[in-house]
Design goal:
Radius of gyration: 19 Å
Structural class: alpha/beta
Number of strands: 9
Number of domains: 1
Strand order of the largest sheet: 3-2-1-4-5-6-9
CATH class: Alpha Beta
Largest sheet: 7 strands, parallel
Number of helices: 8
Shape: globular
CATH superfamily: NAD(P)-binding Rossmann-like Domain
Length: 274
Amino acid sequence: MVILGPESVVLTDRVTVVTGAASGVGAATARAYARFGADVAICDRNAAGLAETAAAVRAVGRRAIEAVIDVRHADAVRSHIAEVAATFGKIDVLVNNAGGSFLADFMATNDKGQQAMIDENFTQCTTFIRECVPFMSRGAGGSIINITSIEAGQAAPGFGVYAAMKAAMESLTESLALELGPAGIRVNAIALDAVHTAGDANMMAQVDQPGIAFEPTYTPPLGWFADADDAAGVCVFLAGDLSRFVTGCSIAVDGGNGAAKGWRRLPRESNYRT
């Protein structure tokens, strides 16, 4: 019988790898992991933001390794993970958070732009997984958390290749849950939407332009937008023992937008029509 207690919530002495950790969900997750007792290895192209995240981790007494790298470069990823493994001797949690997109109709996206989307939102994630898994399976297993988007399961005009790569990551999540399960490694995804981050604001600014044919639903059914800590909370859950029997799942952290499937809340004065 499993008896849950406070020790099931904390992440004491676990080693966590978080990509894209200079800001937004990645930074919030790294800080949360440290507050719950984990050591953290972080990477990003933004050196200044990465240093701030590392300082926040160390401020609560946990160790941090930071690497200023472009995650699309496989050799840089391999070097980073080799350092993590040499320093800590194991890896317990991998959060594939790094990614990004730009607004462009599919027919206006050239080969270079398409490959950049594939590399940034899919290929680099597979590299991190392949490099981290051997250091998980040597111990008591681990947890892989892939940050995706509700666009993985719905249309995303102007962001078609990005959405396709998020769908690919959700599919890979399910396959790897089966393949890696015997090693005790759980694999799950978190599908985000309506989470206020700098990256999200940049994408929204792109679609908020004259002449745009489609616009996304703005305020989710809950009635407010989330911040990065709301996503980080689910990352904490999936990293620890409370989710020990959860694998192959995609958890929507979207305020209900996925469930709404295009429906949107009207202003209160319009909800009661005569």
